[in-house]
Each structure stands twice: as C-alpha cells, then as structure tokens.
Specification:
By secondary structure, this protein is an all-alpha fold. The chain contains six helices and no strands. It has one domain. It is globular and about 30 Å long.
C-alpha cells in the first residue's frame, strides 16, 4: 500500500492545524486574521472535504473550496477561491 502524496495536507485538515493547511490558506488568499477560522472549518468539515481515501487531490480541493464558500467570513476574506 502506498502513501498518498497529499497525506500531510489530509492529516493537517483532520487536526485543524499544520503547515500544509496554512500554506493552502495562503494560496487561497486567506489573510492571517482568518486562518484560525479556516483551520477550524477544515477540521469541522473534514468528512465533507475528504469522504473517501480513493478521492483524487483535485476533488479534495474542490470540496474544500465549496466549504470555504459556505462560510460567510471565509467567502469574503479568502480572495482566490474560485
């Protein structure tokens, strides 16, 4: 069994903290002031973001973006969410 390339990001989401999750928040344009909310949202919605181990990374990111858009603060503040 091989490890996923995105294992570190998935573990960070499950914990609600970590450098990979923080780096992704930066790439989404989420300012420092909302990073804690972003991390908590990722942890709170982990099962919606990552419902299956067989998911492709692109689908995980799409699910994460969907959850960001559902959060009024993050939808407003994270500037590069499609």
């Amino acid at each position: 069994m091989s490890l996923r390339k995105d294992t570190n990001l998935i573990m960070d989401m499950a914990r609600g903290e970590g450098e990979h999750l923080s780096a992704l928040a930066y790439l989404y344009g989420c300012p420092i002031e909302v990073r804690e909310e972003y991390a908590q949202m990722a942890q709170r919605n982990f099962k919606q973001i990552f419902p299956s181990y067989q998911m492709e990374s692109v689908n995980i990111l799409s699910n994460l973006e969907s959850e960001i858009v559902k959060n009024p603060l993050l939808a407003k503040e994270c500037k590069w969410v499609s």
